[in-house]
């Protein structure tokens, strides 16, 4: 389901793809967006889409909000590190111990009942490719939420202690699944 509020977009969708990742500490990290992979609405985020926004936020000394299920009234933590790399939009942060919903989120993450990440953004520039997919080339990122059902199935939280090999293995599986989906298999 796609929602728009005053130009801000965020997406969530029910998916039957279980995650194999676990969260065992208050520190959370993962990819909130992966470049080149179509989400379940057909949108594809292009490399560099967050560059201007992240630079502007850093210059202004502002942060992207960590929210619960895209609810602007429920901030639950702090994203300490948000950056683009070759893979996508990487986020690292922590849940606020004194916030009730954050304690609930920690329990859900630790149990594996929840592990999705989702972005809330405003499209600055986009175009349609030859297959009708919306190619998002510049985004104004407002928030990254912990969600039950991310629009991009591969956008998941990883435990801080997760080994690099396991993270790369998960990413490789996600990329193979996306390539298979694009090939129509």
UniProtKB/TrEMBL annotation:
Any one Gene Ontology BP term: proteolysis
Prohead serine protease domain mapped to chain residues: 25-161
Membrane-spanning parts: none
Protein keywords: Hydrolase, Protease, Viral release from host cell
Molecular functions per Gene Ontology: peptidase activity
Domain of life of the source: Bacteria
Protein name: HK97 family phage prohead protease
